[in-house]
Design brief:
There is one protein chain. With 126 residues, this protein is an alpha/beta fold. The protein has a single domain (7-123), classed as 2,3-Dihydroxybiphenyl 1,2-Dioxygenase, domain 1 (Roll). Helices cover 17% and strands 40% of the residues. It has helices at 15-25, 81-90, and strands at 7-11, 29-35, 41-46, 53-58, 73-77, 95-102, 105-111, 117-123. The strands form 2 sheets. It has a 4-stranded mixed sheet, with helices on one face. Strand 3 (41-46) and strand 4 (53-58) form a beta hairpin.
């Protein structure tokens, strides 16, 4: 049996642009970076208050990156969705969908570099 989720990997072409998005738009912290034995450039990031990490991987020998619609996404809790949306738009990343009301609050989406989708969740009673 597994104990806990440690990280999720997303392969990217433009590593520095993607790192900038996760750090400057989402506010994630870079934990570490290194090059793997096969030559992949790896960068690990995490959200404040989370143990799980996101691993960004640049390995051009794997070929082009094609992220199909509705294939995968990361979801992050935000304190104030409207405030976050203004911040993200000022960095060049407007909401791509939403906000929408849910039973537990509101959700919206933005598109990260490379076509990956990011869900933003504002919970009721924040």
């Amino acid at each position: 049996m597994v104990k806990k989720l440690l990280h999720t990997r997303y392969r990217v072409h433009d590593l520095e642009k993607t790192i900038s998005f996760y750090k400057d738009v989402l506010g994630l912290q870079e934990v570490r970076r290194h090059t793997s034995g096969r030559g992949s450039q790896l960068v690990f990031l995490k959200a404040p208050g989370s143990d799980e990490e996101i691993e960004l991987c640049k390995f051009d020998e794997s070929g082009p990156i094609v992220v199909g619609p509705d294939l995968t996404h990361l979801a992050f809790e935000v304190e104030d969705l409207d405030k976050f949306a203004k911040h993200a738009a000022s960095k060049g990343y407007p909401l791509s969908d939403g906000p929408h009301s849910t039973n537990g609050g509101r959700i919206a989406f933005i598109d990260a570099p490379e076509g990956y989708e990011v869900e933003l969740i504002e919970r009721v009673g924040k």
